[in-house]
Task: structure prediction
Amino acid sequence: MSLNPKSPFDVIKDRIPPFLRNKYMACLLPFMVWITFFDKANIMEQVKLRAKVEKNQELKEYYLNLIEEGKANRAALNADLEKFAREEYYLKKNNEDVFIFEEN
Result:
């Protein structure tokens, strides 16, 4: 017969791996679980935010290209303003007649 019988807590304590019985690991593990799943900036939120940033980067590139095309169109328009005015707004000089042909 043993002089010092084991309590039920000792049995449970012996089943826990030694690295988890360390007080630092006992604090670090719940902290990591909290940060990973329950915090406002959890892993899933970070993944969603990263996807949103990538999408916004693509939109930024699209709009920058659109701006460049607009600048090129504006430069072409300024180079030949009279042609644009005649074709788009049917403007004419005083001694001219404008005939518009529509295709049916």
